[in-house]
Structures are given as structure tokens and as C-alpha cells.
Design a protein that fits this description.
10 helices, Galactosylgalactosylxylosylprotein 3-beta-glucuronosyltransferase, EC 2.4.1.135, signal-anchor, 19% strand, Spore Coat Polysaccharide Biosynthesis Protein SpsA, Chain A, Glyco_trans_43, alpha/beta, two-stranded antiparallel ribbon, 13 strands, binds 2-acetamido-2-deoxy-beta-D-glucopyranose, transmembrane, single chain
């Protein structure tokens, strides 16, 4: 692995493999810029970015080239039946075209529908798992974290996860309809005994993607563990964690799960009403500009 010049690198410390699925949309560059500039402060980090696309986009390629991050750029397209409504015929060329298709085809209903039922990022996260299993060995020390591009991360969350033995967990802010979704600990044993989740608390692991990390060695050891389409959105975390661990073995981080170090902020979709009027007249505000 190349350690790029500007990054702090300690050959003794485990590498954090931050796995970020991404897809073309008006806010994509803003989100990836924000996330990449957070990750640039983290030592021993390798960013695996997987585009939901038929080929690498120049937007993501350019962005990765500008960072000083160690990175791997992959792409894999979500199969047709599982694609986002409105992105079926969309190829990554122009965000405005996406927007037109988007407003025509997406209704609130479909947004909600796909949020709750359509699993997202399955193919892309699995591509990262395959890449790790192909390119890393049991001698490589590391930890794997699914870092979506629409969250806000404290740098401290990366310190917390770095020495994960198998699977570590911590609270996530602004998710699951709550201010915070968090593991509940037995204060005597320090073990996870449950969760405070309100949405489908019957899930085997009612936890958000941003609330856990898995050691690289454990990913390699449990080589059959993958995300899957035959489980609903909201159950992907449970599905992968059930293949990797049991509740008793979870390692609570962030001061026994008393600190919130990551937030599911999500970016508000931009209002492009004026842009759409332009597009209707065959004009774009972003001609010759990558936004
Ligand atoms: C977490 O809780 C356990 C059990 O009560 C305790 O032994 C440990 O010191 C605590 N750790 C932190 C960082 O507070």
C-alpha cells in the first residue's frame, strides 16, 4: 500500500478502512468533499469509495486525486430491481438530467418506500468486502467502518474504533426517529444488554450503519459475511452483524456509550426550482463547472 505523502502513518497502528458507497446526485460533491476533509485528519486511514455506477465518474476520480488520502476507487451498479426510483435510466453524466428524472419520478411516497424497504448500498459495500478479502491478509492490522457520505463524524470516533478486536459499537445521533440511538450497557459488567431503539426494536441488532466497526481480521475470518437484498432497509445492519458476532461479544466504545461522536445528519435536498426553469429552456447554470 502506498502511504501518500501528507498523511500521518504509523506502521504499527491498525489501518482504518472507511467504506463509503456513493451515487450521483446534486449534493454528491459537497458531501464527499466534507467527508474527505474529515478523513484527511485521521492517521492510518484508507478510504474505499464505491460508486453506484457503470463506470468511474470523473467527479469522484477528480475528488480522490485532490485528496492526500490513501484510497481505492471502485464501482458497481445496483441491479435494476433494486435501483432508486428515478435513477433507472440515469448514467453519470449530468446532475441536472438526474434532477429532471428525479422530480418526475420520485414522490414522497417513493422516497419513504425506498427508505424503509429498499436496501441501499448492498452491492457497493459487498464490493468493498470482496476487495478487502482479496487484497488483505491476516497479517494486516485494521478495522472496517461503513462511513456513509451523509453523516457528520467527530475525529474521536476514529480513535475509538481503531483497536476493535471483533465488533465495536457506540451511539449514533439523530437516527431512528430519536435524538440518539444507543446500546444499553450493564454498568457492572460493561456489556451490551440491549438498545434504546424505538423503530423496530425487535431487530437483532437495532443499530445504524454508522454505529459499529469490525476488525479487518474478523472480516477475513468470517469470509462468507455479506450484505443482502432479501433483507429490508433498516435490517442490513442486523443481517451483517448476525453473521459476525453475538450481542455478548460487542465491545462498547465512546466512554461506555455515553458519548455521541457521529450523527446521521443527512443533507437537505437542494431546491433547484430556478435551475429547472433554465433546463426547460435548454440552459444550465453549471455549464463547464463541476458542482
Ligand atoms: C465502563 O464500564 C466498566 C464497567 O462498569 C468499567 O469497568 C470501565 O472502567 C468503564 N470504562 C469507561 C471508559 O468509562
Amino acid at each position: 500500500m502506498c502511504q501518500r505523502d501528507c498523511q500521518h502513518w504509523d506502521p504499527e497502528a491498525p489501518v482504518i478502512y472507511a467504506v463509503t458507497p456513493t451515487y450521483a446526485r446534486p449534493v454528491q460533491k459537497a458531501e464527499l468533499t466534507r467527508l474527505s476533509q474529515t478523513l484527511m485528519h485521521v492517521s492510518n486511514l484508507h478510504w474505499i469509495v464505491i460508486e453506484d455506477a457503470v463506470k468511474k465518474s470523473s467527479l469522484v476520480e477528480n475528488l480522490l486525486a485532490r485528496t492526500n488520502l490513501n484510497h481505492t476507487h471502485l464501482f458497481v451498479q445496483t441491479p435494476v430491481p433494486y435501483r432508486r426510483k428515478g435513477s433507472v435510466n440515469y448514467s453519470i453524466t449530468n446532475n441536472c438530467d438526474f434532477f429532471i428524472t428525479n422530480i418526475i419520478m420520485i414522490s414522497m411516497f417513493f422516497n419513504l418506500f425506498s427508505f424503509f424497504f429498499q436496501p441501499r448500498g448492498v452491492e457497493q459495500r459487498n464490493a468493498a468486502l470482496r476487495w478487502l478479502r482479496k487484497n488483505k491478509t491476516m497479517n494486516d492490522k485494521g478495522v472496517v467502518y461503513f462511513a456513509d457520505d451523509d453523516n457528520s463524524y467527530s475525529l474521536q470516533v476514529f480513535d475509538e474504533m481503531r483497536y476493535t478486536k471483533e465488533v465495536s459499537v457506540w451511539p449514533v445521533g439523530l437516527v431512528g426517529g430519536l435524538m440518539v440511538e444507543k446500546p444499553i450497557l450493564n454498568l457492572t459488567t460493561g456489556k451490551v444488554v440491549g438498545w434504546n431503539s424505538a423503530w423496530r426494536p425487535d431487530r437483532p441488532f437495532p443499530i445504524d450503519m454508522a454505529g459499529f466497526a469490525i476488525s479487518l481480521q474478523h472480516i477475513l475470518k468470517k469470509s462468507k459475511a455479506y450484505f443482502a437484498y432479501n433483507v429490508s432497509g433498516g435490517f442490513q445492519e442486523s443481517h451483517i452483524l448476525q453473521q459476525l458476532t453475538v450481542r455478548e461479544n460487542l465491545e462498547p466504545k465512546a466512554d461506555n456509550c455515553t458519548q455521541v461522536l457521529v450523527w446521521h445528519t443527512r443533507t437537505e435536498g437542494p431546491r433547484l426550482t430556478e435551475e429547472n426553469k433554465l433546463i426547460a429552456r435548454g440552459i444550465h447554470s453549471d455549464v463547464g463547472l463541476e458542482v
